[in-house]
From TrEMBL:
It comes from Lentibacillus amyloliquefaciens. Residues 1-171 are annotated as: CPSase. This is Carbamoyl phosphate synthase small chain. InterPro entries: Anth_synth/Amidotransfase, CarbamoylP_synth_ssu, CarbamoylP_synth_ssu_N, CarbP_synth_ssu_N_sf, Class_I_gatase-like, CPSase_GATase1, GATASE. PANTHER family: CARBAMOYL-PHOSPHATE SYNTHASE SMALL CHAIN, MULTIFUNCTIONAL TRYPTOPHAN BIOSYNTHESIS PROTEIN-RELATED.
Length: 364
């Protein structure tokens, strides 16, 4: 195994063993507290531009299987683990984590004190970082990391280039791909939807021409303020077509309605985030992966109401438009990885479509 270094913006250097691809990588270092689900994390396009440290100490133990991918081409910039299992044991396992990462040009580093690393991210907030095998003086490596550009406009990198259809006989849904996890598509096809997946810059006019019954906005990487074409699109379709947003899609609905977003110190990433559904007076366990958040106070004076909030820090987890059929959540109702407490939101979206068609007297 090659020695590999993880260099952080604050000047800390961790040395460990390289696995996966033998390539240099840079990005924002974040941590995920899920005990399982590394395959879904690695293939979630929302992690584009990020190096993820898993706080669970043993990673790779059930290998990589053909069923749990969230995208075909992974965009994560690297993975940091305490102990890498070289001998996965699971009936579904097709290959090792090492082989998968190597084939997809993603570097990993093992043998890292991930508790110390996580504490340091919690204290400093997320930081710029680099993984490298280069034998250079520490000062030079730290300077390289400090000078890395802040990149938060990754949606164009991960969104589909052309629209495509996943046919069904049910509701016609336009799914705007901002870095779509396949599980969102799975939840829609499970419900017989006819899904047209479109790029982030497809525009309201083109979307309306498809005569959709509903529009869904997916998860995605980066800062929601760096996707202005999406804010404009949401403004134009609001009130015309029922809308449901997840994660980045949620933040974009908030921006389109005049609310504001900000970056949290180290975000929410894991599979056990408790959220209170204020309308149902019920607590759910959710899967989360986000850095940005809708600012609570920015919602007053808008036409949005808060429907759900985090029980860890009371941040905004769900919003709904007061008059138009539109709602969104900050967490992942499609889970993958994580608890399956909230897929009913997809049913509520379809229910909202039926109700708004009845109201408008359209053939339901
Ligand atoms: N998973 C997501 O959609 C993340 C949304 C956004 N990029 C954030 O970090 O907050």
């Amino acid at each position: 195994m090659t020695k590999r270094q993880l260099v952080l913006e604050d000047g800390t250097i961790f040395t460990g063993d390289g696995f996966g691809a033998e390539t240099k990588s840079t990005g924002e270092i974040v941590f995920n507290t899920g005990m399982t689900g590394y395959q879904e994390v690695i293939t979630d396009p929302s992690y584009c531009g990020q190096i993820v440290t898993m706080t669970y100490p043993l990673i790779g133990n059930y290998g990589i299987n053909r069923d749990d991918f969230e995208t075909v081409t992974p965009f994560i910039h690297g993975i940091v683990v305490k102990e890498l299992s070289g001998h996965p044991s699971n009936f579904r396992s097709d290959e090792t984590l090492h082989d998968y990462l190597k084939a997809n040009d993603i570097p990993g580093i093992s043998g890292i004190d991930t508790r110390q690393l996580t504490k340091s991210i919690r204290n400093h907030g997320t930081m710029k970082a680099m993984m490298t095998d280069a034998d250079k003086p520490s000062e030079e490596l730290i300077d390289m990391v400090k000078n890395l550009p802040d990149k938060t406009d990754q949606v164009k990198t991960v969104s589909t280039v052309k629209p495509y259809v996943v046919p069904g006989r049910g509701r016609r849904i336009v799914l705007v791909d901002l870095g779509m996890k396949h599980s969102i598509l799975r939840e829609l096809t499970k419900r017989d939807c006819h899904v047209t997946v479109v790029p982030y810059d497809y525009g309201a006019e083109n979307i309306l021409r498809l005569k959709p019954d509903g529009i869904m906005l997916t998860n995605g990487p980066g800062n929601p303020k760096h996707v202005p074409e999406m804010v404009a699109m949401v403004k134009s379709v609001l009130g015309k077509i029922p809308l449901f947003g997840i994660c980045l899609g949620h933040q974009l609905l908030a921006l389109a309605c005049g609310a504001d977003t900000e970056k949290m110190a180290f975000g929410h990433r894991g599979a056990n985030h408790p959220v209170k559904d204020l309308e149902k007076n019920k607590t759910v366990m959710t899967a989360q992966n986000h850095s940005y958040v809708v600012i609570h106070d920015s919602l007053s004076g808008t036409d949005l109401v808060i429907t759900q909030e985090s029980l860890n820090d009371h941040s905004v987890e769900g919003i709904r438009h007061k008059t138009y059929p539109a709602f969104s959540v900050q967490y992942h109702p499609e889970s993958s990885p994580g608890p399956e407490d909230t897929p009913y939101l997809f049913d509520e979206f379809l229910q909202m479509i039926s109700e708004s068609r009845e109201k408008e007297n359209v053939y339901a």
